[in-house]
């Protein structure tokens, strides 16, 4: 049956789903990389498309910004039959060692958000990406010859609240970058018995409100999406 927010039928959604936050990026991904993409929902602006990539059926589903929206979409996608959820988005670098448009493959996310706290009743927890998706993403990035970083990220709620001092403090604990959806995605996937991962490209330095130049960010997004899709292919073909 159709879900409350992701207005689709189970047959509409592929097992492999890319999760951008931005509906415009969802449409761009579907029209740029997928063969025969078809729109299956546009309810509440949460655009969803399904097509194929190298013969593998793939969906692209908008999550919106932040953990509350992303967790709703993830829950409903699982009910619609999705088994592999891979966030593709942007992040703020916690340290200048990360350069503009470089790829970050998350192993885990510090849950500095309210959604995971509500799910867990405040209990301590370490939201972790599925190893299969991390492994396949690293393999795909290496095949493309991409400079990439693998490690810990932090998920937060307030985009404009982070400061350079806050970022450098957490960089000292191993945090590479900050974003707004991964911790809830990892938790929902673990609870519902599916796999989840997160790829993000560096769009700015924490504390700097200016994004990197459009053409630089576009290159990073392209590399990220190709890596994500190729990771799905590796898993689908049992080649990871």
Automatic annotation (TrEMBL):
InterPro entries xrefs: Nucleoside_phosphorylase_CS, Nucleoside_phosphorylase_d, Nucleoside_phosphorylase_sf
Assigned keywords, A-Z: Glycosyltransferase, Transferase
Domain of life: Bacteria
Annotated CDD domains: PNP_ThPNP_like (cd17765)
SUPFAM superfamilies the record matches: Purine and uridine phosphorylases
BP term (GO), one: nucleoside catabolic process
GO cellular component, one term: cytosol
GO MF term list: uridine phosphorylase activity
Gene3D superfamilies linked to this entry: Nucleoside phosphorylase domain
Catalytically driven reaction(s): uridine + phosphate = alpha-D-ribose 1-phosphate + uracil
Domain Nucleoside phosphorylase span(s) in chain numbering: 16-210
Pfam families linked: PNP_UDP_1
Entry EC number(s): 2.4.2.3
Family the entry assigns: Belongs to the PNP/UDP phosphorylase family.
Protein's UniProt name: Uridine phosphorylase
Organism: Deinococcus peraridilitoris (strain DSM 19664 / LMG 22246 / CIP 109416 / KR-200)
Lineage, opening ranks: Bacteria, Thermotogati, Deinococcota, Deinococci, Deinococcales
